[in-house]
Amino acid sequence: MSLRENKKRARTAEEKTDRRSVVLSAAREMIAESGFESVTMSGLAKRAGLAKGTLYLYVKTKEEVFALLFVEGLSGYVDALLPHVGEDEALIRAMSMEARENALFLPLMARLTTIIEANLSREALIRTKRAVGAQAARLTTEMATERAMGSGEAFDLVHALFVALQGAAQLSVARPAFFDELPEDVKQVYGASEPDAAFVTAARLILKGAADASA
Amino acid sequence: MSLRENKKRARTAEEKTDRRSVVLSAAREMIAESGFESVTMSGLAKRAGLAKGTLYLYVKTKEEVFALLFVEGLSGYVDALLPHVGEDEALIRAMSMEARENALFLPLMARLTTIIEANLSREALIRTKRAVGAQAARLTTEMATERAMGSGEAFDLVHALFVALQGAAQLSVARPAFFDELPEDVKQVYGASEPDAAFVTAARLILKGAADASA
DNA sequence: CTTTACAAATGACCGACGGTCATTAATTTA
DNA sequence: TAAATTAATGACCGTCGGTCATTTGTAAAG
User: What pLDDT band is residue A3 in, cutting at 50, 70 and 90?
Assistant: First the structure.
């Protein structure tokens, strides 16, 4: 995924977008291979075939890379949800399946506020927040029409589901390297809360509660 | 909160616990005054009246400090909840009030998995996980008896509520320094999700869904 | 009271990392 | 062909988490 062999410079806007997407791919690979903590800017630059200084031409902070990945993932996630917002079980299934489909999505979401947003430039933060707001709005309006709800109600429901998802996402954080050496009872504390199961039970209750409320 | 003026050494177990509690107090102050990111080990040592090396006699990593604060906070939090697990609105009120009471609790919870647990020594992680598991169990059994539920059901309900709390906690992350300079529409994205409101709506739906299920 | 043994305390030091900037050089424009 | 522009570079910097050889307060032994 390196670009280095191509010594050409990025002059046009399109070429710059290409560079950026190479960086994003390299980041995806590094995260998948060895986790977030292993992503360093020098490492990422090398992997993308760039010098560190060049990387900083395309991104103002390390976390901006993660923010871009998250926004991209969120957009695809909402795409996948839209056809199913009308029916409880289908929606839950879509939410949990799609999260498993894009393995980076929950880990990114888990880090969204405390790590990613906390380290964005003003401009990157604005872009990110706008994108998130837009996706939430997309879901909310679809939910309102599909379920014939008031927009306030739909707003609450969407947000409740995403609060649950973000909570469950925390459980998607990779286990420590020494997990196997942990005492049995500690391993069970991990086992007691798998991200997927946690989300599904919470989401079921939420949707049932919402159905109950409008009935 | 410094201990420095007292040049005595900590010999007994009790004196060591004292040292540790001085460190925790110093950390609380620093977080309250200027946020998590401002806590450095040298700064914390100075504030506690210790040399950096001494601080590392009491704690293996920086995040162990946060873990200790969290466990302490969680214990008090569950204490406050126990009397109210029987009734929906009382429980919600207790959860949201108590979270506001201890201003550090949600911010710590928001960082629990991605930052804190990710940087604990094996021993500290074991202690932390055990403590969390114990508090969860305490709540679950109380919930089961008080609501005459099966323990599986109670387990699910407790976990759903805490998933929501952890999701809402993400919204408690401090706003950026340049928040005021953000465009109006971006500020509104922040406004659309206050931690307290987000938790309360999600929790209401969850509890309503649970009531519906057992009816 | 003095000496010895122990372990608490210290802070200089180290490596890693995020981020910067003066300089180089590819490409376009005049 | 020369001048102007701007992408690219990587040496460099400051900060920070964490370590460890040394110092020194304290208790036990003689």
Answer: very low
